[in-house]
Amino acid sequence: MRCSGAHDSRKATPSTSRRVRALVCCLVSLLCGAPATAAEAVPASGSEVRARIVGGDRAESGTAPWTVALTDSSGAHFCGGALVEPRRVVTAAHCTVHPRTGEPRGGDDIRVVLDRRDLRTDAGEVITVRRVWRHPDYEHFTTGHDVAVLTLDNAASQPTLEPVEPGAREPYLPGTRGTVYGWGRLGERRPASPVLRSVRLPVMSGGRCARAYGGFDRDAMFCAGFPRGGKDACAGDSGGPFVVDGRLVGLVSFGSGCARPGFPGVYTRLATYADEISAVTPVRRSG
């Protein structure tokens, strides 16, 4: 969960031993203003989350057409996601929970915005959500299982992104480069980007991640970033896709601050949940 302000999971102080960037920092708004510990990690989504692309560039026109923005019923952006089927979007579980109250978001409070690279415009289409599936073992972004599937009321016309195969290991090898997409903040104390941005990051070793974050689960998570920092996802990028060789392999989950040295971003390891994701089939309308 990445927070900016009260929602910044990455607002941890430099002295903190763990860097948590949960894109839904709002869930732990009280922690966003204090040093983040492994148990105090904050997500990267929501108005209180710090999930924006740091050190990246504007995504080129025509790229990543499967990247979606999630807004509430009022139109306020709070997370990202990926369209994997015409009626199915994969995002972070913490994006389906209200950051301040911890209560689940219903489908009536989530809108999926497609084909809108600039959120200041009315381009593209907005589709309502029929059903929200949140991983049954999800409790907090720092403990894993940070994945959810949104079933849409209507089929989207945009291209879809193929998820990684169940149990795949190669995309998570240290040094593998992936691209992250989102509309999150451009820095810890900078505003969110209204235009879709992207950044390429290398996967880091599980050992390096474990040293940065206590409780790091190698089966449920992976880290990406540079030892020196400088490039990262940030508040508002939560739930956004991490793509390797044209496949969805991860979701922005959390981190400590944004692009800080020694604190890479943490992502949901989707190969672990691929079977469960594919089992969530779209609801068929009667008649």
UniProtKB/TrEMBL annotation:
InterPro entries: Peptidase_S1 (IPR050430), Peptidase_S1_PA (IPR009003), Peptidase_S1_PA_chymotrypsin (IPR043504), Peptidase_S1A (IPR001314), Trypsin_dom (IPR001254), TRYPSIN_HIS (IPR018114), TRYPSIN_SER (IPR033116). One of its GO terms (biological process) is proteolysis. Belongs to the peptidase S1 family. Keywords: Disulfide bond, Hydrolase, Protease, Serine protease, Signal. Residues 1-38 form the signal peptide. Coiled coil: none annotated. Gene3D superfamilies: Trypsin-like serine proteases. This is Trypsin. Residues 53-282 form the Peptidase S1 domain. GO terms for molecular function: serine-type endopeptidase activity. It comes from the Bacteria.
